[in-house]
Protein backbone atom coordinates (compact mmCIF):
# COMPACT_ATOMS: atom_id res chain seq x y z
CA UNK A 1 0.00 0.00 0.00
CA UNK A 2 1.45 3.34 -0.98
CA UNK A 3 1.97 6.19 1.43
CA UNK A 4 -0.64 8.27 -0.34
CA UNK A 5 -3.23 5.55 0.18
CA UNK A 6 -2.29 5.25 3.85
CA UNK A 7 -2.64 8.99 4.32
CA UNK A 8 -6.02 8.93 2.57
CA UNK A 9 -7.28 6.15 4.81
CA UNK A 10 -5.95 7.93 7.90
CA UNK A 11 -7.77 11.16 7.03
CA UNK A 12 -10.98 9.26 6.25
CA UNK A 13 -10.68 7.32 9.53
CA UNK A 14 -10.14 10.51 11.51
CA UNK A 15 -13.16 12.18 9.92
CA UNK A 16 -15.42 9.18 10.52
CA UNK A 17 -14.23 8.75 14.08
CA UNK A 18 -14.97 12.39 14.83
CA UNK A 19 -18.40 12.34 13.18
CA UNK A 20 -19.45 9.06 14.82
CA UNK A 21 -18.40 9.87 18.38
CA UNK A 22 -17.44 13.53 18.65
CA UNK A 23 -17.50 13.51 22.43
CA UNK A 24 -14.29 11.51 22.51
CA UNK A 25 -12.53 14.50 20.99
CA UNK A 26 -13.88 16.87 23.67
CA UNK A 27 -10.53 17.16 25.54
CA UNK A 28 -8.88 18.34 22.32
CA UNK A 29 -11.37 21.16 21.81
CA UNK A 30 -11.83 22.10 25.51
CA UNK A 31 -8.90 24.57 25.64
CA UNK A 32 -10.62 26.62 22.92
CA UNK A 33 -13.72 27.29 24.99
CA UNK A 34 -14.33 29.89 27.69
CA UNK A 35 -16.51 29.98 30.78
CA UNK A 36 -17.35 26.28 30.63
CA UNK A 37 -19.06 26.40 27.22
CA UNK A 38 -19.52 22.95 25.59
CA UNK A 39 -16.39 21.99 23.57
CA UNK A 40 -18.41 19.87 21.09
CA UNK A 41 -21.44 21.14 19.17
CA UNK A 42 -24.47 19.93 21.09
CA UNK A 43 -27.48 21.37 19.29
CA UNK A 44 -27.54 18.74 16.59
CA UNK A 45 -25.88 15.57 15.36
CA UNK A 46 -22.65 16.41 13.49
CA UNK A 47 -22.92 13.30 11.29
CA UNK A 48 -26.44 14.20 10.20
CA UNK A 49 -25.37 17.76 9.44
CA UNK A 50 -22.34 16.62 7.41
CA UNK A 51 -24.45 14.15 5.41
CA UNK A 52 -27.14 16.78 4.82
CA UNK A 53 -24.53 19.21 3.49
CA UNK A 54 -23.01 16.53 1.27
CA UNK A 55 -26.47 15.63 0.01
CA UNK A 56 -27.26 19.25 -0.86
CA UNK A 57 -23.95 19.65 -2.68
CA UNK A 58 -24.42 16.43 -4.65
CA UNK A 59 -27.97 17.32 -5.69
CA UNK A 60 -26.82 20.75 -6.83
CA UNK A 61 -23.83 19.23 -8.68
CA UNK A 62 -26.07 16.69 -10.43
CA UNK A 63 -28.32 19.49 -11.65
CA UNK A 64 -25.33 21.67 -12.68
CA UNK A 65 -23.80 18.74 -14.53
CA UNK A 66 -26.99 17.98 -16.42
CA UNK A 67 -27.50 21.58 -17.48
CA UNK A 68 -23.83 22.48 -18.10
CA UNK A 69 -23.03 19.32 -20.10
CA UNK A 70 -26.27 19.72 -22.03
CA UNK A 71 -25.43 23.33 -22.85
CA UNK A 72 -21.85 22.37 -23.70
CA UNK A 73 -23.09 19.78 -26.17
CA UNK A 74 -25.59 22.19 -27.66
CA UNK A 75 -23.10 24.99 -28.31
CA UNK A 76 -20.53 22.69 -29.88
CA UNK A 77 -23.04 21.44 -32.49
CA UNK A 78 -23.01 23.40 -35.76
CA UNK A 79 -26.67 24.29 -35.23
CA UNK A 80 -26.10 25.56 -31.69
CA UNK A 81 -22.82 27.43 -32.18
CA UNK A 82 -24.60 30.77 -32.17
CA UNK A 83 -25.71 30.14 -28.57
CA UNK A 84 -22.14 29.93 -27.29
CA UNK A 85 -21.75 33.62 -26.32
CA UNK A 86 -25.16 33.66 -24.63
CA UNK A 87 -24.53 30.42 -22.72
CA UNK A 88 -21.11 31.58 -21.67
CA UNK A 89 -22.58 34.84 -20.33
CA UNK A 90 -25.23 32.94 -18.39
CA UNK A 91 -22.86 30.53 -16.66
CA UNK A 92 -20.42 33.36 -15.98
CA UNK A 93 -23.19 35.34 -14.29
CA UNK A 94 -23.89 32.25 -12.20
CA UNK A 95 -20.29 32.27 -11.07
CA UNK A 96 -19.87 36.03 -10.57
CA UNK A 97 -23.12 36.51 -8.70
CA UNK A 98 -22.11 35.79 -5.06
CA UNK A 99 -24.01 32.81 -3.61
CA UNK A 100 -25.01 34.98 -0.65
CA UNK A 101 -26.68 37.39 -3.02
CA UNK A 102 -28.44 34.50 -4.74
CA UNK A 103 -29.77 33.41 -1.35
CA UNK A 104 -31.01 36.93 -0.66
CA UNK A 105 -32.83 37.01 -3.99
CA UNK A 106 -34.28 33.51 -3.88
CA UNK A 107 -35.49 33.35 -0.28
CA UNK A 108 -38.42 35.71 -0.95
CA UNK A 109 -39.31 33.59 -3.97
CA UNK A 110 -38.99 30.02 -2.67
CA UNK A 111 -38.86 30.49 1.11
CA UNK A 112 -36.28 29.38 3.67
CA UNK A 113 -34.65 25.92 3.76
CA UNK A 114 -32.78 23.80 1.23
CA UNK A 115 -34.23 25.28 -1.93
CA UNK A 116 -32.43 28.65 -2.01
CA UNK A 117 -29.14 26.90 -1.17
CA UNK A 118 -29.64 24.39 -3.98
CA UNK A 119 -30.32 27.21 -6.43
CA UNK A 120 -27.25 29.18 -5.30
CA UNK A 121 -24.94 26.16 -5.51
CA UNK A 122 -26.41 25.08 -8.84
CA UNK A 123 -25.70 28.50 -10.37
CA UNK A 124 -22.26 28.68 -8.78
CA UNK A 125 -21.21 25.25 -10.05
CA UNK A 126 -22.17 25.65 -13.72
CA UNK A 127 -19.09 27.47 -15.01
CA UNK A 128 -16.31 24.89 -14.53
CA UNK A 129 -18.43 22.04 -15.89
CA UNK A 130 -19.61 24.05 -18.87
CA UNK A 131 -16.19 25.36 -19.83
CA UNK A 132 -14.57 21.94 -19.47
CA UNK A 133 -17.30 20.27 -21.52
CA UNK A 134 -16.87 22.81 -24.31
CA UNK A 135 -13.08 22.45 -24.25
CA UNK A 136 -13.30 18.65 -24.15
CA UNK A 137 -15.67 18.47 -27.09
CA UNK A 138 -13.76 21.06 -29.10
CA UNK A 139 -10.37 19.42 -28.69
CA UNK A 140 -11.38 16.02 -30.06
CA UNK A 141 -8.83 15.34 -32.84
CA UNK A 142 -10.24 16.39 -36.22
CA UNK A 143 -9.00 13.21 -37.89
CA UNK A 144 -10.90 11.05 -35.38
CA UNK A 145 -14.10 12.98 -35.98
CA UNK A 146 -13.67 12.78 -39.74
CA UNK A 147 -13.09 9.05 -39.50
CA UNK A 148 -16.22 8.66 -37.38
CA UNK A 149 -18.34 10.46 -39.95
CA UNK A 150 -16.57 8.70 -42.79
CA UNK A 151 -17.40 5.32 -41.22
CA UNK A 152 -21.08 6.22 -41.38
CA UNK A 153 -21.86 7.26 -37.81
CA UNK A 154 -24.82 9.60 -37.54
CA UNK A 155 -24.28 12.85 -35.63
CA UNK A 156 -25.83 11.34 -32.50
CA UNK A 157 -23.77 8.14 -32.70
CA UNK A 158 -20.62 10.17 -33.15
CA UNK A 159 -21.45 12.27 -30.09
CA UNK A 160 -22.26 9.32 -27.84
CA UNK A 161 -19.58 6.86 -28.89
CA UNK A 162 -16.67 9.13 -29.81
CA UNK A 163 -16.96 12.74 -28.69
CA UNK A 164 -18.33 12.32 -25.17
CA UNK A 165 -16.00 9.42 -24.23
CA UNK A 166 -13.03 11.47 -25.42
CA UNK A 167 -14.20 14.55 -23.53
CA UNK A 168 -15.06 12.57 -20.40
CA UNK A 169 -11.80 13.16 -18.47
CA UNK A 170 -12.16 16.92 -18.86
CA UNK A 171 -15.86 16.86 -18.00
CA UNK A 172 -15.11 14.89 -14.85
CA UNK A 173 -12.48 17.42 -13.91
CA UNK A 174 -15.06 20.18 -14.25
CA UNK A 175 -17.49 18.28 -12.03
CA UNK A 176 -14.75 17.76 -9.47
CA UNK A 177 -13.88 21.47 -9.35
CA UNK A 178 -17.53 22.40 -9.06
CA UNK A 179 -18.18 19.87 -6.28
CA UNK A 180 -15.18 20.89 -4.22
CA UNK A 181 -15.92 24.61 -4.47
CA UNK A 182 -19.49 23.95 -3.45
CA UNK A 183 -18.72 21.76 -0.43
CA UNK A 184 -17.23 24.88 1.14
CA UNK A 185 -19.77 27.30 -0.25
CA UNK A 186 -22.66 25.19 1.03
CA UNK A 187 -21.97 26.29 4.61
CA UNK A 188 -23.59 29.66 3.91
CA UNK A 189 -26.86 27.79 3.29
CA UNK A 190 -27.25 27.63 7.05
CA UNK A 191 -28.01 31.37 7.06
CA UNK A 192 -31.30 30.53 5.37
CA UNK A 193 -31.99 27.45 7.51
CA UNK A 194 -30.64 24.76 5.22
CA UNK A 195 -29.26 21.84 7.21
CA UNK A 196 -25.47 21.76 7.12
CA UNK A 197 -22.24 22.36 8.95
CA UNK A 198 -22.66 26.11 8.51
CA UNK A 199 -25.04 25.79 11.45
CA UNK A 200 -22.10 24.78 13.67
CA UNK A 201 -19.92 27.64 12.46
CA UNK A 202 -22.71 30.19 12.91
CA UNK A 203 -23.45 28.89 16.41
CA UNK A 204 -19.75 29.31 17.21
CA UNK A 205 -19.71 32.86 15.88
CA UNK A 206 -22.85 33.82 17.82
CA UNK A 207 -21.67 32.38 21.14
CA UNK A 208 -18.02 33.30 20.59
CA UNK A 209 -17.09 29.58 20.76
CA UNK A 210 -13.94 28.95 18.71
CA UNK A 211 -14.25 25.18 19.16
CA UNK A 212 -17.57 25.15 17.23
CA UNK A 213 -16.16 27.30 14.42
CA UNK A 214 -13.18 25.01 14.14
CA UNK A 215 -15.29 21.82 14.12
CA UNK A 216 -17.58 23.08 11.35
CA UNK A 217 -14.64 24.31 9.32
CA UNK A 218 -12.46 21.25 9.77
CA UNK A 219 -15.15 18.73 8.90
CA UNK A 220 -16.09 20.74 5.81
CA UNK A 221 -12.45 21.01 4.79
CA UNK A 222 -11.75 17.31 5.24
CA UNK A 223 -14.85 16.40 3.24
CA UNK A 224 -13.69 18.67 0.41
CA UNK A 225 -10.20 17.17 0.41
CA UNK A 226 -11.45 13.58 0.43
CA UNK A 227 -14.01 14.29 -2.29
CA UNK A 228 -11.38 15.97 -4.44
CA UNK A 229 -9.06 13.04 -3.97
CA UNK A 230 -11.69 10.38 -4.69
CA UNK A 231 -12.83 12.14 -7.87
CA UNK A 232 -9.24 12.59 -9.03
CA UNK A 233 -8.74 8.83 -8.62
CA UNK A 234 -11.90 8.20 -10.65
CA UNK A 235 -10.61 10.52 -13.38
CA UNK A 236 -7.32 8.65 -13.55
CA UNK A 237 -9.24 5.42 -14.03
CA UNK A 238 -11.32 6.91 -16.80
CA UNK A 239 -8.24 8.39 -18.47
CA UNK A 240 -6.71 4.94 -18.49
CA UNK A 241 -9.68 3.43 -20.28
CA UNK A 242 -9.98 6.41 -22.62
CA UNK A 243 -6.26 6.04 -23.36
CA UNK A 244 -5.43 9.65 -24.00
CA UNK A 245 -1.78 10.31 -24.15
CA UNK B 1 -18.68 1.02 -60.90
CA UNK B 2 -18.19 4.65 -59.87
CA UNK B 3 -19.25 7.29 -62.28
CA UNK B 4 -18.54 10.91 -61.46
CA UNK B 5 -20.53 13.31 -63.63
CA UNK B 6 -19.80 17.02 -63.89
CA UNK B 7 -19.11 17.26 -60.18
CA UNK B 8 -18.69 20.84 -58.98
CA UNK B 9 -18.09 22.32 -55.55
CA UNK B 10 -18.18 26.02 -54.86
CA UNK B 11 -17.56 27.78 -51.59
CA UNK B 12 -19.01 31.25 -52.09
CA UNK B 13 -17.48 32.45 -55.32
CA UNK B 14 -14.49 30.09 -55.20
CA UNK B 15 -14.77 26.98 -57.30
CA UNK B 16 -12.83 24.20 -55.61
CA UNK B 17 -13.85 21.42 -57.98
CA UNK B 18 -14.90 22.41 -61.46
CA UNK B 19 -17.13 20.10 -63.54
CA UNK B 20 -15.05 16.98 -63.05
CA UNK B 21 -16.19 13.79 -64.76
CA UNK B 22 -14.50 10.40 -64.72
CA UNK B 23 -15.36 6.74 -64.29
CA UNK B 24 -13.71 4.07 -62.19
CA UNK B 25 -13.92 0.47 -63.33
CA UNK B 26 -14.80 -2.30 -60.92
CA UNK B 27 -11.81 -3.79 -59.07
CA UNK B 28 -9.42 -1.15 -60.35
CA UNK B 29 -7.40 1.52 -58.60
CA UNK B 30 -7.81 5.12 -59.67
CA UNK B 31 -5.44 7.65 -58.19
CA UNK B 32 -6.27 11.33 -58.03
CA UNK B 33 -3.07 13.33 -57.96
CA UNK B 34 -2.52 17.03 -57.74
CA UNK B 35 -0.81 19.81 -55.84
CA UNK B 36 -2.28 20.98 -52.56
CA UNK B 37 -5.31 23.13 -53.20
CA UNK B 38 -6.08 21.35 -56.45
CA UNK B 39 -9.40 20.11 -55.07
CA UNK B 40 -8.43 16.42 -55.02
CA UNK B 41 -9.49 15.78 -51.44
CA UNK B 42 -12.75 17.66 -51.91
CA UNK B 43 -13.43 15.58 -55.00
CA UNK B 44 -12.86 12.37 -53.03
CA UNK B 45 -15.02 13.54 -50.14
CA UNK B 46 -17.86 14.27 -52.52
CA UNK B 47 -17.96 10.59 -53.47
CA UNK B 48 -19.00 9.57 -49.95
CA UNK B 49 -20.77 12.87 -49.39
CA UNK B 50 -18.64 14.12 -46.54
CA UNK B 51 -18.82 17.16 -48.79
CA UNK B 52 -22.08 17.78 -50.62
CA UNK B 53 -21.57 18.78 -54.29
CA UNK B 54 -22.86 22.11 -55.54
CA UNK B 55 -23.85 20.44 -58.79
CA UNK B 56 -23.24 17.24 -60.71
CA UNK B 57 -23.72 13.74 -59.39
CA UNK B 58 -21.99 10.52 -58.45
CA UNK B 59 -23.36 7.16 -59.55
CA UNK B 60 -22.44 4.03 -57.67
CA UNK B 61 -23.37 0.96 -59.73
CA UNK B 62 -25.73 3.21 -61.65
CA UNK B 63 -27.51 4.52 -58.55
CA UNK B 64 -27.30 8.17 -57.56
CA UNK B 65 -25.50 8.42 -54.20
CA UNK B 66 -28.07 10.97 -53.06
CA UNK B 67 -30.83 8.37 -53.08
CA UNK B 68 -30.06 7.36 -49.48
CA UNK B 69 -29.08 9.19 -46.28
CA UNK B 70 -25.39 10.13 -46.30
CA UNK B 71 -24.44 8.13 -43.19
CA UNK B 72 -26.01 4.95 -44.59
CA UNK B 73 -24.16 5.46 -47.88
CA UNK B 74 -20.85 5.83 -46.00
CA UNK B 75 -21.30 2.48 -44.27
CA UNK B 76 -21.07 0.84 -47.71
CA UNK B 77 -17.92 2.78 -48.66
CA UNK B 78 -14.60 2.25 -46.91
CA UNK B 79 -12.75 5.41 -45.94
CA UNK B 80 -9.12 5.81 -44.94
CA UNK B 81 -7.56 9.16 -44.06
CA UNK B 82 -4.06 10.43 -43.47
CA UNK B 83 -3.05 9.94 -39.84
CA UNK B 84 -5.49 6.99 -39.71
CA UNK B 85 -8.03 8.67 -37.34
CA UNK B 86 -8.32 5.59 -35.13
CA UNK B 87 -10.55 5.98 -32.06
CA UNK B 88 -8.04 6.39 -29.21
CA UNK B 89 -10.45 5.12 -26.54
CA UNK B 90 -11.21 1.86 -28.33
CA UNK B 91 -9.10 -1.23 -28.80
CA UNK B 92 -7.83 -2.33 -32.18
CA UNK B 93 -10.59 -4.97 -32.39
CA UNK B 94 -13.27 -2.45 -31.46
CA UNK B 95 -11.91 0.01 -34.00
CA UNK B 96 -12.06 -2.57 -36.76
CA UNK B 97 -15.55 -3.63 -35.68
CA UNK B 98 -16.92 -0.08 -36.00
CA UNK B 99 -18.84 -0.39 -39.26
CA UNK B 100 -20.03 -4.01 -38.74
CA UNK B 101 -21.44 -2.86 -35.38
CA UNK B 102 -23.18 0.09 -37.05
CA UNK B 103 -24.64 -2.35 -39.55
CA UNK B 104 -25.83 -4.60 -36.73
CA UNK B 105 -23.82 -7.71 -37.60
CA UNK B 106 -24.01 -10.62 -35.21
CA UNK B 107 -21.27 -10.65 -32.57
CA UNK B 108 -19.79 -13.98 -33.76
CA UNK B 109 -19.57 -12.76 -37.35
CA UNK B 110 -17.90 -9.54 -36.22
CA UNK B 111 -15.36 -11.47 -34.18
CA UNK B 112 -14.52 -13.77 -37.07
CA UNK B 113 -14.15 -10.85 -39.47
CA UNK B 114 -11.91 -8.89 -37.10
CA UNK B 115 -9.68 -11.90 -36.64
CA UNK B 116 -9.49 -12.52 -40.37
CA UNK B 117 -8.53 -8.92 -41.09
CA UNK B 118 -5.90 -8.85 -38.35
CA UNK B 119 -4.31 -11.91 -39.94
CA UNK B 120 -4.51 -10.43 -43.44
CA UNK B 121 -2.72 -7.32 -42.16
CA UNK B 122 -0.08 -9.39 -40.37
CA UNK B 123 -1.16 -8.40 -36.88
CA UNK B 124 -1.35 -11.32 -34.46
CA UNK B 125 -4.90 -11.25 -33.01
CA UNK B 126 -3.67 -12.47 -29.63
CA UNK B 127 -1.25 -9.56 -29.28
CA UNK B 128 -3.07 -6.79 -31.06
CA UNK B 129 -6.85 -7.30 -30.79
CA UNK B 130 -6.91 -5.90 -27.25
CA UNK B 131 -4.23 -3.25 -27.77
CA UNK B 132 -5.03 0.44 -27.92
CA UNK B 133 -4.02 2.51 -30.97
CA UNK B 134 -1.35 4.48 -29.10
CA UNK B 135 0.44 1.22 -28.31
CA UNK B 136 1.03 0.53 -32.02
CA UNK B 137 3.74 1.80 -34.36
CA UNK B 138 2.84 4.22 -37.14
CA UNK B 139 2.80 1.47 -39.76
CA UNK B 140 0.60 -0.76 -37.61
CA UNK B 141 -1.83 2.09 -36.94
CA UNK B 142 -2.07 2.70 -40.66
CA UNK B 143 -2.81 -0.99 -41.29
CA UNK B 144 -5.51 -0.99 -38.64
CA UNK B 145 -6.97 2.09 -40.34
CA UNK B 146 -7.21 0.21 -43.63
CA UNK B 147 -8.52 -2.93 -41.89
CA UNK B 148 -11.24 -0.85 -40.24
CA UNK B 149 -12.24 0.60 -43.60
CA UNK B 150 -12.47 -2.88 -45.13
CA UNK B 151 -14.30 -4.49 -42.20
CA UNK B 152 -17.79 -4.49 -43.66
CA UNK B 153 -16.54 -5.77 -47.02
CA UNK B 154 -17.21 -2.56 -48.92
CA UNK B 155 -17.07 -2.75 -52.71
CA UNK B 156 -15.49 0.71 -52.79
CA UNK B 157 -12.60 2.06 -50.75
CA UNK B 158 -11.74 5.76 -50.65
CA UNK B 159 -8.27 6.72 -49.40
CA UNK B 160 -7.12 10.26 -48.70
CA UNK B 161 -3.31 10.38 -48.57
CA UNK B 162 -3.32 7.11 -46.63
CA UNK B 163 0.45 6.76 -46.56
CA UNK B 164 1.29 10.43 -46.08
CA UNK B 165 2.43 10.01 -42.47
CA UNK B 166 4.67 6.99 -43.05
CA UNK B 167 8.41 6.96 -43.60
CA UNK B 168 9.61 5.84 -47.06
CA UNK B 169 10.43 2.21 -46.18
CA UNK B 170 7.17 1.52 -44.36
CA UNK B 171 5.33 3.39 -47.07
CA UNK B 172 6.68 1.15 -49.82
CA UNK B 173 5.61 -1.89 -47.80
CA UNK B 174 2.16 -0.39 -47.18
CA UNK B 175 1.73 0.24 -50.91
CA UNK B 176 2.74 -3.34 -51.64
CA UNK B 177 0.25 -4.61 -49.05
CA UNK B 178 -2.50 -2.45 -50.49
CA UNK B 179 -1.98 -3.93 -53.95
CA UNK B 180 -2.10 -7.44 -52.47
CA UNK B 181 -5.29 -6.72 -50.57
CA UNK B 182 -6.88 -5.05 -53.56
CA UNK B 183 -6.22 -8.19 -55.63
CA UNK B 184 -7.46 -10.41 -52.83
CA UNK B 185 -10.78 -8.65 -52.13
CA UNK B 186 -11.30 -7.14 -55.60
CA UNK B 187 -12.04 -3.79 -54.01
CA UNK B 188 -12.50 -0.73 -56.22
CA UNK B 189 -10.18 1.93 -54.85
CA UNK B 190 -10.03 5.67 -55.34
CA UNK B 191 -6.89 7.09 -53.74
CA UNK B 192 -5.77 10.68 -53.37
CA UNK B 193 -2.09 11.59 -53.20
CA UNK B 194 0.26 14.43 -54.04
CA UNK B 195 3.05 11.96 -54.74
CA UNK B 196 3.33 11.22 -58.46
CA UNK B 197 5.52 8.16 -57.87
CA UNK B 198 2.85 6.70 -55.59
CA UNK B 199 0.21 7.46 -58.23
CA UNK B 200 2.25 5.65 -60.90
CA UNK B 201 2.95 2.74 -58.65
CA UNK B 202 -0.63 2.10 -57.52
CA UNK B 203 -2.89 3.53 -60.17
CA UNK B 204 -4.49 1.59 -63.00
CA UNK B 205 -5.62 5.03 -64.02
CA UNK B 206 -4.41 8.38 -62.79
CA UNK B 207 -6.45 11.57 -62.66
CA UNK B 208 -4.28 14.70 -62.70
CA UNK B 209 -5.92 17.72 -61.12
CA UNK B 210 -4.96 21.34 -60.99
CA UNK B 211 -6.97 24.26 -59.61
CA UNK B 212 -10.17 22.28 -59.42
CA UNK B 213 -10.03 21.02 -62.98
CA UNK B 214 -9.31 17.50 -64.17
CA UNK B 215 -6.47 17.88 -66.66
CA UNK B 216 -6.23 14.27 -67.75
CA UNK B 217 -7.52 10.89 -66.67
CA UNK B 218 -5.60 8.04 -68.26
CA UNK B 219 -3.32 5.07 -67.74
CA UNK B 220 0.06 6.10 -66.29
CA UNK B 221 1.94 5.31 -69.51
CA UNK B 222 -0.44 7.49 -71.51
CA UNK B 223 0.16 10.42 -69.16
CA UNK B 224 3.86 10.14 -70.06
CA UNK B 225 3.57 9.49 -73.76
CA UNK B 226 0.53 11.62 -74.61
CA UNK B 227 0.11 14.36 -71.97
CA UNK B 228 -3.06 16.32 -72.61
CA UNK B 229 -1.73 19.50 -71.07
CA UNK B 230 1.76 20.96 -70.52
CA UNK B 231 0.91 20.99 -66.82
CA UNK B 232 0.51 17.21 -66.87
CA UNK B 233 4.03 16.67 -68.16
CA UNK B 234 5.29 19.26 -65.67
CA UNK B 235 3.71 17.28 -62.87
CA UNK B 236 4.78 13.88 -64.10
CA UNK B 237 8.27 15.31 -64.52
CA UNK B 238 10.13 15.75 -67.79
CA UNK B 239 13.63 14.95 -66.62
CA UNK B 240 13.03 11.30 -65.75
CA UNK B 241 9.99 10.49 -67.86
CA UNK B 242 11.84 7.74 -69.71
CA UNK B 243 12.72 6.08 -66.43
CA UNK B 244 9.15 6.47 -65.20
CA UNK B 245 7.91 4.82 -68.38
CA UNK B 246 10.35 1.95 -67.86
CA UNK B 247 9.14 1.49 -64.32
CA UNK B 248 5.61 0.80 -65.62
CA UNK B 249 6.60 -2.35 -67.50
CA UNK B 250 7.90 -5.54 -65.89
CA UNK B 251 10.80 -7.54 -67.18
CA UNK B 252 8.45 -10.47 -67.73
CA UNK B 253 6.21 -8.41 -70.03
CA UNK B 254 9.13 -7.13 -72.07
CA UNK B 255 11.16 -10.38 -72.21
CA UNK B 256 12.28 -11.55 -75.62
CA UNK B 257 12.40 -15.24 -76.50
CA UNK B 258 15.67 -17.07 -76.17
CA UNK B 259 18.30 -17.67 -73.52
CA UNK B 260 20.48 -14.66 -73.12
CA UNK B 261 23.70 -14.13 -71.27
CA UNK B 262 24.21 -11.99 -68.24
CA UNK B 263 22.84 -11.32 -64.77
CA UNK B 264 19.50 -12.73 -63.64
CA UNK B 265 16.51 -10.40 -63.37
CA UNK B 266 13.17 -11.42 -61.82
CA UNK B 267 10.21 -11.32 -64.20
CA UNK B 268 8.32 -9.24 -61.63
CA UNK B 269 11.03 -6.55 -61.56
CA UNK B 270 10.40 -3.38 -63.53
CA UNK B 271 12.44 -2.51 -66.62
CA UNK B 272 13.85 0.39 -64.65
CA UNK B 273 15.26 -2.03 -62.11
CA UNK B 274 16.48 -4.33 -64.89
CA UNK B 275 18.27 -1.45 -66.59
CA UNK B 276 19.80 -0.36 -63.33
CA UNK B 277 21.09 -3.89 -62.84
CA UNK B 278 22.64 -3.89 -66.33
CA UNK B 279 24.26 -0.49 -65.84
CA UNK B 280 25.65 -1.64 -62.52
CA UNK B 281 27.01 -4.96 -63.79
CA UNK B 282 28.18 -3.58 -67.15
CA UNK B 283 26.48 -6.44 -69.03
CA UNK B 284 24.70 -5.97 -72.37
CA UNK B 285 21.88 -8.41 -71.63
CA UNK B 286 20.08 -10.20 -68.83
CA UNK B 287 18.30 -13.50 -68.20
CA UNK B 288 14.71 -13.12 -67.06
CA UNK B 289 13.80 -15.55 -64.31
CA UNK B 290 10.13 -16.44 -63.91
CA UNK B 291 8.22 -16.93 -60.67
CA UNK B 292 9.00 -20.68 -60.85
CA UNK B 293 12.75 -19.94 -60.74
CA UNK B 294 13.28 -21.02 -64.37
CA UNK B 295 14.60 -18.72 -67.13
CA UNK B 296 11.69 -17.49 -69.24
CA UNK B 297 13.36 -15.14 -71.68
CA UNK B 298 16.05 -12.53 -72.17
CA UNK B 299 16.48 -8.78 -72.23
CA UNK B 300 19.02 -6.60 -73.94
CA UNK B 301 19.94 -3.01 -73.18
CA UNK B 302 18.68 -1.96 -76.60
CA UNK B 303 15.35 -3.72 -76.04
CA UNK B 304 14.92 -2.01 -72.69
CA UNK B 305 15.81 1.41 -74.07
CA UNK B 306 13.29 0.98 -76.88
CA UNK B 307 10.56 0.64 -74.24
CA UNK B 308 11.51 3.91 -72.64
CA UNK B 309 10.16 6.14 -75.43
CA UNK B 310 6.74 6.54 -76.96
Summarize the structure.
Helices cover about 75% and strands about 0% of the residues of chain A. Chain A is mainly α and about 240 residues long. Chain A has a single domain (about 45-240), classed as MetI-like (MetI-like fold).
Structural summary, described in words:
The complex is a heterodimer of chains A (245) and B (310). Helix content of chain A is 76%, strand content 0%. Chain B is α/β, with parallel strands linked by helices. Chain B has two domains: 237 residues, 3-Layer(aba) Sandwich (Rossmann fold), CATH 3.40.50; 64 residues, CBS domain Like. In chain B, strands 6-7-8-3-9-10 form a six-stranded mixed sheet, with helices on both faces. Chain B is globular, with a radius of gyration of 21 Å. Chain B starts with a strand and ends with a helix. Chains A and B meet through α7 and α8 of A and α2, α4 and α7 of B.
What is the number of domains of chain B?
Answer: 2
Biggest beta sheet attributes of chain B: 6 strands, mixed
The tally of strands of chain A reads: 0
Q: Helical stretch count of chain B?
A: 15
Average pLDDT level of chain B:
91
CATH architectural category of the largest domain in chain B: 3-Layer(aba) Sandwich
CATH topology of the largest domain in chain B: Rossmann fold
Which structural traits does this protein have?
heterodimer; A: 245 residues; mainly alpha; MetI-like fold; B: 310 residues; alpha/beta; Rossmann fold; CBS domain Like; 2 domains; six-stranded mixed sheet; four-stranded antiparallel sheet; 15 helices; globular
Amino acid sequence: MSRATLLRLAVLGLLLAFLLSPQRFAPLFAPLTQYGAPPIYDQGNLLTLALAQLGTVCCAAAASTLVAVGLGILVTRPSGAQFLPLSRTLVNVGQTFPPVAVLAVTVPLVGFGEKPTLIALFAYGLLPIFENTVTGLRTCPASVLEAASGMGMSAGQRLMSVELPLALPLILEGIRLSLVINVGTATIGSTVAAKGLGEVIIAGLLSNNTAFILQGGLVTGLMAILLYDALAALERRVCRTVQLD
Amino acid sequence: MISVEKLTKQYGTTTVVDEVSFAVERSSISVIVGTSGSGKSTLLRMINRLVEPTSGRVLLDGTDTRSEPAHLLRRRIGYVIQGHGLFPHRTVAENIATVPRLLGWEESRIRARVEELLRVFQLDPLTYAGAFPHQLSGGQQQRVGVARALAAEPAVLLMDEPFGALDPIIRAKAQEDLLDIQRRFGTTIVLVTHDMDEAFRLGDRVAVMSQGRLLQYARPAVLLTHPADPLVSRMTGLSDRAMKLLSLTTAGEAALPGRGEGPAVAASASLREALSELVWSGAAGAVVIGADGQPCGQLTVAAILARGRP
